[in-house]
Design goal:
Helix content is about 70%, strand content about 0%. The chain has 31 helices and no strands. The longest helix has 30 residues. The chain is globular, with a radius of gyration of 28 Å.
Length: about 650
C-alpha cells in the first residue's frame, strides 16, 4: 500500500508545459546580474586570517609552496576544512590574492548549487504537492523552477555568496546537494523496479565526506536524506528487501549516531558546560535565545527586508528566561506549533511537513546545543532551500486552481522580481566595504560590532587621501559607541584608546576601563585586538608609557580564560615592544623565550628569537633557534620565512 501511495504522488510532467530549462537559464543570468555590483568589494573580517594573512597561501608560487600545509592551514572547525582551503589555494594559484576572483568563484558555486537544487526539485516536487491537488501534473515543473529561482535570488543569500570565507558553506552545500541528488535519483529508479539503492547510498557517503571536510555541517546530509525519504518517499519500494535496506541505512546513519551522541552527553555531563566557559552565555540561555533567532530567520525569509539583515546581530538580546524577554515563550510556542503541523499534515500536505522538517534539520547543528555565536544569516543558506520548495509546492496548486495560468505566472514573476531587486540593493552595498559597514551601522545602531566595523571601514577607506587626524575624528564616535554598547567589547575600546594615544596621554580611567575589559574576557578570540594593539605600540610612537602597557599585559595574563597559545602571543608581542620602543633587548629575549616555552610547538616564536639574535649580531644563537624552528615547522607554513632567514645566515 505504501508503494502504491508513493507512486500516485508522482504524476508525469505535462508534455505541453513550457520548456523549464530555458526559464532556469534565464534565472541564472538574472542572478549574475543582481550580484554583479557586489563582486568588486574587498576582503572582509575572517577573510584576513583565513586567506590574506595565511602563510601557506602566501607561499604559493615560491619554491616552498606546500599543498598539505594549505589544506591544514585553518583552525576553523574540528576537521580544519581542508577541501575548502584547497579550493582557496587553487584560487590563489590561478588568479593571485584577488578578491574579485574569489567572489566570482563563489558566485559560480552558488549558481551550480542552484542547478543541483533545481534538479532535485524537478524530481521531488510532484511528491510534495497536496494529495488533493487537481493540477499536479502541470504545476510541479513550475514549483521546482520558482523554488530554485527564489533560493538563488533571495537577499538573505548575499553574505553566503559575497563573503569570501563562506566558500566553506557554499562547498558543503554543493556536496550535500550532490549527494541528495544521487539519492533522489536512485529512489526514483528504485520505484521503477531498478536496482539503484546502493548507488544512492554510495552517493550520500562519498559526497557526504566531501561536504564534511568542506564544513562540519555537511554531516547533516543524512538527516536531509531522512527528511526526503520519510516525507517524499515514505520508505516505499517494490521489494521488501529494498524497504529493509532503507530502514537499515537510516538506522545506521541517523538513529545510531544520535543515540551515541545522547550516550556521550549522558556519560560526560560536564562536557557541554565546560564548552560554554569561553562564552558570555550559558547553554540554557543559548537554547532559549535560539528559539527567537529561528523565528527571526523565518521572518527574514518570508519578508526579506534588507534593513533587518547584516553581518552582525549582537543587537539581539539574550533570553535569560521564558518571559525575559516575553517573546521567548511565544517563539517556543511558534516552533512547537510548526513541528506539530509538520506531523499533522505529513500525508495530506507533505510540502508543509517537508519544508518545516528540512528547515529544522538544517539548523540542528548550528542553532542548538553547540557553543557557537548566536546569529549568522548564512546559516540559512541550505535550510532555506527545502523550506521554499515545500511552501511553494503547497501554495502553487491552490493558486493555480483559483487563478488563470497567466495571472499565476505573473505572480511568480513578481515575487522573483522583488527578491532580485532586494538582492541587487544588498549586493551594491557589498561592492564597497565602507558603504557596507556604514549601512550595517545605520541598520543596527544597537550592534556594538557593527559600530566598530563602521569606524574601522572609515579608517581604511580614507587611509590614502585623508589626513590621519581627520580620519580619527570621523571614526572615534563609532568606536566609542561600540565600547558603550557592549561592556565587554575589546575592539572598540582599544581603537578609541589608540586614537587618544596618538594625540595625547591616555587618561588613567580609560586605561583602567580597558584593563577591566581584558580581565573579563571569556572568549579568547577577543584578545586578538589586544595582540594587535601591542604590535601597533611596537611599530609607532604612542603616548603610552612602558608602565601603562605593563599594567595591561599583567591584567591580560592574569585572565584564566586565555589559553597558552594566546598567552604566548601576548608575551611575544610585548617582547617586540620592548625591543623596538623600549630598546631593552634582554627583556625582549626573556619575554620571547617565555612565549616559546608557553607554546613550545609553535615555530613562530623560535623564528622571532632568530630575528632578535640576528639583530644583535649573535649568529650562533640565531642558528640554534632557526634549527628548532625548522624541526617544529611540521605543516610547512613557515618554510618561506625560514629559508629567508637561512639566507641571511
Amino acid at each position: 500500500a505504501g508503494y502504491d501511495a508513493a507512486m500516485t504522488l508522482a504524476p508525469s510532467m505535462s508534455p505541453h508545459a513550457r520548456n523549464p530549462a530555458l526559464g532556469f537559464v534565464a534565472l541564472l543570468l538574472l542572478a549574475v546580474l543582481v550580484y554583479a555590483s557586489g563582486l568588486f568589494g574587498g576582503f572582509l573580517f575572517d577573510d584576513f586570517p583565513v586567506l590574506v594573512n595565511n602563510p601557506a597561501l602566501q607561499a604559493l608560487g615560491t619554491p616552498t609552496q606546500n599543498w598539505l600545509a594549505i589544506a591544514l592551514s585553518s583552525d576553523s572547525g574540528m576537521l580544519r576544512r581542508p577541501i575548502s582551503l584547497l579550493s582557496f589555494g587553487l584560487n590563489v594559484a590561478a588568479f593571485g590574492m584577488s578578491p574579485l576572483a574569489f567572489k566570482l568563484v563563489n558566485l559560480g558555486i552558488h549558481l551550480l548549487n542552484g542547478g543541483v537544487l533545481y534538479a532535485i526539485a524537478r524530481r521531488l516536487a510532484p511528491r510534495l504537492l497536496p494529495t488533493a491537488a487537481a493540477h499536479a501534473a502541470s504545476v510541479a515543473p513550475a514549483v521546482a523552477l520558482l523554488a530554485a529561482g527564489l533560493w538563488l535570488l533571495h537577499p538573505l543569500q548575499v553574505s553566503s555568496v559575497l563573503y569570501v570565507v563562506q566558500r566553506m558553506n557554499l562547498l558543503a552545500t554543493l556536496f550535500t546537494l550532490a549527494g541528495l541528488l544521487c539519492y533522489v535519483d536512485a529512489r526514483e529508479r528504485a520505484l521503477r523496479g531498478e536496482a539503484a539503492l546502493l548507488g544512492g547510498f554510495a552517493g550520500l557517503g562519498l559526497f557526504g565526506v566531501l561536504a564534511v571536510f568542506s564544513k562540519e555541517n555537511g554531516a547533516l546530509i543524512v538527516l536531509y536524506a531522512f527528511v526526503v525519504e520519510a516525507i517524499g518517499y515514505r520508505f516505499a519500494a517494490p521489494q521488501p528487501s529494498q524497504r529493509r535496506a532503507l530502514g537499515g541505512f537510516f538506522l545506521a546513519t541517523v538513529a545510531l549516531p544520535l543515540l551515541a551522541l545522547l550516550l556521550f552527553l549522558a556519560t560526560h555531563p560536564h562536557w557541554l558546560p565546560d564548552a560554554y566557559a569561553a562564552r558570555a552565555f550559558t547553554l540554557g540561555e543559548r537554547l532559549l535565545t535560539q528559539a527567537r533567532v529561528m523565528c527571526d530567520y523565518l521572518l527574514w525569509i518570508g519578508l526579506p527586508n534588507p534593513a533587518w539583515m547584516g553581518m552582525f546581530h549582537d543587537d539581539i538580546a539574550l533570553s535569560i528566561g521564558l518571559l525575559n524577554p516575553p517573546s521567548t515563550a511565544a517563539a517556543i510556542v511558534v516552533l512547537a506549533a510548526l513541528a506539530a503541523a509538520a506531523w499533522r499534515w505529513r500525508r495530506s500536505h507533505p510540502g508543509i511537513a517537508f519544508g518545516i522538517a528540512w528547515f529544522l534539520v538544517g539548523h540542528a547543528m548550528e542553532s542548538t546545543i553547540l557553543p557557537l555565536e548566536m546569529v549568522f544569516e548564512h546559516r540559512n543558506y541550505l535550510p532555506m532551500a527545502g523550506l521554499l520548495l515545500g511552501l511553494i509546492a503547497t501554495l502553487a496548486p491552490a493558486l493555480r486552481a483559483h487563478v488563470p495560468a497567466r495571472a499565476a505566472s505573473g505572480i511568480g514573476l513578481a515575487v522573483l522580481s522583488v527578491c532580485a531587486s532586494l538582492t541587487a540593493v544588498r549586493a551594491a552595498d557589498w561592492g564597497d566595504s565602507q558603504r557596507l559597514a556604514l549601512a550595517d551601522a545605520r541598520h543596527h545602531p544597537a550592534s556594538s560590532r557593527s559600530q566598530f566595523e563602521a569606524g574601522r571601514a572609515v579608517l581604511i577607506a580614507g587611509a590614502r587621501q585623508t589626513p590621519r587626524a581627520q580620519l580619527d575624528a570621523q571614526a572615534l564616535p563609532y568606536f566609542e559607541a561600540a565600547a558603550r554598547l557592549d561592556p565587554d567589547d575589546i575592539d572598540g575600546a582599544i581603537a578609541a584608546l589608540l586614537i587618544h594615544a596618538r594625540r595625547e596621554p591616555v587618561p588613567t580611567a580609560q586605561l583602567a576601563d580597558l584593563g577591566a575589559r581584558l580581565g573579563r574576557i571569556t572568549n579568547y578570540t577577543r584578545a586578538n585586538a589586544f595582540l594587535d594593539m601591542l604590535i601597533t605600540a611596537s611599530n609607532e610612537k604612542l603616548n603610552l608609557t612602558t608602565h601603562d602597557l605593563a599594567g595591561l599585559v599583567d591584567t591580560a595574563m592574569a585572565n584564566p580564560h586565555l589559553p597558552p597559545k594566546v598567552r604566548a602571543m601576548i608575551l611575544n608581542n610585548d617582547g617586540a615592544y620592548q625591543f623596538n620602543i623600549a630598546h631593552d633587548a634582554q627583556a625582549a629575549i626573556g619575554l620571547t623565550m617565555t612565549a616559546a616555552a608557553t607554546d613550545p610547538s609553535n615555530p613562530y616564536f623560535q623564528i622571532n628569537l632568530t630575528k632578535i639574535a640576528l639583530a644583535v649580531n649573535d649568529h650562533p644563537t640565531a642558528r640554534e633557534h632557526l634549527a628548532i624552528a625548522k624541526s617544529l615547522n611540521k605543516t610547512g607554513a613557515y618554510t618561506s620565512e625560514i629559508a629567508r632567514l637561512e639566507s641571511q645566515l
